[in-house]
Structure formats: C-alpha cells, structure tokens
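We modelled the chain as a single entity of 268 amino acids. Its sequence is:
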Amino acid sequence: MLGTRLLVIVSDCVQADALADLVLDAVSHAARPFSLRLALPLGTESILEELPREAIGGVTLQGTLRFYPHMEGLAGVLPLLTDETHFLFLKGLHAFSEKWDQGLLRRWQRLPSPQAVLTAWVSAANGDLPPQAYLPAMGTVEEDAVEIVAGLPLVCASTVVKTMVINPGLLFGSTDFLRQAHIREDLLSIAAFVADYSVYAIDRPLLWPFYQPPKRYLRKPMADELPGHFLARFEQFAGLSFTKRLVGIRSNLGLFAQEEGYPQRMPT
C-alpha cells in the first residue's frame, strides 16, 4: 500500500453534521489514514466547524477535505485530482469496518489486471442483522432504464466475483478510470465495458450504507453518447434488452461469467 493515496468522493449528502460523522468514521477505521483525502459536496464547508481540531491517527481532518460541485457528478471531481492513485465513490452516508481501505486495495491489487474496478451492493445494518454483500444485478426494465438490485448473496464467497453491473452507489478503482471512462453515474456499467475495464463485486461488506439505499438505475445511453454497436454488444453479454424490456434469469442473479457459481469458502 506504500505510495498509494485514496480520494473518497461522497455524493448525495449535504448535511454537514452527518458528513462529519462519516469523515470521522472513515479516518478512524482506516489502516492508513494519512493516505486519505475526502471530496465533499460544495455547500457543506460548514463541516469544518463540526470536526475536532486535534489530529486523529496523525491526521488533521481539516487538511484532508476538498469540496467539489456534486451536481456535476464524478466529472466535478476531475479538477481536484493531483497525486491520488485510487478513488472510492459513495452515494449517501456509509459506515466503515476496521482497515476498510486496506481491504479494498488488497482486493484490487490481486485482480488479473489493473484495468478493473470494484463495486458492491451492500445492505444496511438492520437491528441484529449485519450488513450483507450481494452481486449487483439487473431488475425491472423501466422506460429505457434497468433497475440495479441485489442479486446472489455472497455469503460464502472466498474472493471478489466478476460481474458486469456497477452499483453507482459504491465504486472503487484507479483514478485512471475517472480520466479514461465516460463517468456519468447512470452509465457506469456500460462505460466500464466500452473502456475495457473489468468489474468485480466485493465479497465482504467492508463498508455499508447507513440506510437502505434508494433505487438506482442503469440508463440506456442516447445515440450521441455511445455508438449503437457498443450498446448492442453490452446487451448481448449482459443478457439485457432495453427495446424488449427484458433481462435474463442469470442477469437477475448477477451472474454474467461463464461459471454458474463463484469461488467459495467453507462457512465458519
């Protein structure tokens, strides 16, 4: 992990006190808090008054923060990039497990190629039920958009699982992806496919949303956004038809590889 610098990008939250809790949780549970920077929505600068002045893990929190025009989506972050090697994009408030940054980076480093991103569909904690990681999958097709839903639960997965669906609520990878791919949040799955980036689902809830997330969609791109043959190839591989408003059974589970399952570990 030496030499890495991670930019955590937070969207869909403009409450300074809630963002302060997220920043504290992320930094205090990180294996390398000094490698973190956080990009928060413009208009939430009052968070600086909510954070403690003393250093946490050798880090002065105020010095880690950047603010970006969140209405522009991920494109609004590009001018902030300097020496960051990786990014984590989150929509809404999340909680973080111990050494969450180390867990993400190690999984990414073990992938066959650096031209890959990690994603997850993770449930919120619910009473005594802990968060659970699922394969991101395709649900109902509605008016040129398909809902991204929880597919097969990764209860016994022993490693990350290859998929084709990015949950725009949680995405991790090299900052090269932000520079090279079409990064509209509702087109990320197709953008990764076109840019030849592999997508893998995280096998563990290394972080999870505070609340059950709202519906998220993969939108059919307009003709001027993507040539038709790229969309046709994506639909073919993903088992999806925007025109017929259909998705295959495997797509409902999130299984897009040749294998019918995924590497598993024995339950403990």
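As a brief sanity check on the tokenised model: Residues 74 and 259 are 33 Å apart (CA to CA). The helical segments are 16-29, 47-50, 100-109, 175-180, 188-194, 228-238, 249-253.
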